[in-house]
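Can anyone check this?
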Amino acid sequence: MFEGVVSYLINRFLGKYVQGLDSSNLRVGIFSGDVELKDLQLRTEALVELNLPIEVKAGYIGYMKVDIPWTSLFSCSVTVLVEDVYVLAGPVTDRGYDLARETALQNAVKREILLSLTPTGTPAAPTNGEDPGFLEKLYTYVLNNIQVSVGRIHVRYEDTVTNPDHPFACGVMLKHISAYTTDMHWQPAQMDNAATVIHKLLEMRELSVYWNTYIPEQHLIRSKTHTDAWRSLLKQAILQHRILEEDFDFIVEPITAEVKVIINKDNNQAIPKMLADVCLDDIEVLLSRQQFLNILNLSDSFKLMSVNQKYRRYHPNVPLKISPRSWWVYAFTAIVEERIRPFSFERIKQHRIKYNEYKDLYIKHLCEPDDEDIKERLAVLEEGLNVTNIVMAREHAKESYAPHKVVKKPKKKTGWFSWWGGEEEEEEVKFDLGSSETDWFSKLTPEEKTKLYQGIGYDKNASVKKSNEYKLQLNMKSCCVSLVNYSKKILQVCVTQMLASFETRPGKDAYRLSCNTESFVIEGASIEHELIPIVTSDVNVYAPSVNQVFTLDFESRPVYVEADFSLKMNIQPVEVVYDEHSLCEVRAFFQLPTRSFDMRAVAMETMQGMASISQAGLIYAIQTHK
């Protein structure tokens, strides 16, 4: 019954990232309840949601399987299995200008912006705030009904543009992550749709982040994307933590985490509606000065690449010293094509014709939202219009379309004295154009909606009770953050037995944040390059009668007092040692190179120096003149 909607959603999601997706075969697999895909290639614009001037140089999904039990959809679990996700990314400016790839990237960015400006495909009632109970029931059902397992993810970014003499690479690796339903003892169990309390366990193994500030050109993977060797290298790196004899410099060492989620479907119970307990083992974060400077340079490079991206079509692709004339032509052409010619009468006339054509076609799309031919023609026209003009044309089309969709409200019953004010006319209500073509709920038939209500246990006529609260807890054994310079730690901050929680009370639109830790220690580098304590706090030494050395409790609209906010903080005695060398090392770590300063300030300082020298020379010449 829901096969068509599920097929639409999966096609829409996968088609956004996967290249050459066979929609017909995928639809057949969805209708049979067994979807199995292998060797999927990712689109160049798959990372467009990051809003960065980067693209996918090579992307691969090894295996994907989805089991959908259509005959017992509301009593059995939907299983999703994904394995071997490898992505190699890089800046868009490290290659020559390719019109097809640039157009695909620009269109993807345009679609993301338009999608963010368009109402999402959620049911109308929850969107309008009339009935949040349906979405709540739907999300609870989906969370309880899906078992997910993802294995071996490696996303790597290689850059030869930011600093051509020192290529670098960074990446994120994840060995395995899974989410499945359990019993109250956190053991795997079959789904019980009648249960009032749902237990979900999420396990994550070996999540890490690395950043190598220098990679020799011959050790870059991008030169091997024409074969399958790049996939093997990324896969082996998850276990070996190295690629082509280059060991990874981890910013975040591999982390293992466990998240226990308890969902309460019965609002009468005392436990929160949703309780998530995040348990983390030892966390170690190391940031070297070279990585720190590399990150700053990359941030500046992204800004320059974003500005230069729309002028790439005019780029001469030759060094300035070889052909200065080509660069003058490049500057002239860029200004003329981007600043002058778009405002010529002929260009304005063509733009107006295209704008009106898009508006008229969008009116037809509002009348026939499922017409694929109209959608394709709209996509072609959108390539020649920017986001502002597309949004204006759509709103203009909706205004032109709305008068034809007027609904007459039935006349209200009047009392005995209604004759005094005259006869009350029927009220005109404009058609609601808020729902978009991505609204999956509107694609369901009344019978499918009824079955969906029954399957998730939703009664639209029942009164919605105020939810108790949502609570998120974080348990962390230890966390150490270190700054490294010349392979030596110059600062280390360690926190042990940290417990933090965040909970909400939707009834009063309030929240509460609390945090406490057993001890924390800050160590700095001595002259002998050994770590010495700077700030020490140990409850066993300085506060033997308490268990926590630091506690914080922040609450909005507190229950126990009439106030907007309340703040409680308790800090036990700490020992602070002043060490000048340690502070100098930290200050030197964050010292930026002169070239990173404001060039105008440097130029002004240079000019003032030259003026002072000239003035001194002039005075000396006058004094020595005979």
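Reply from J.R.: I decoded it. The radius of gyration is 31 Å.
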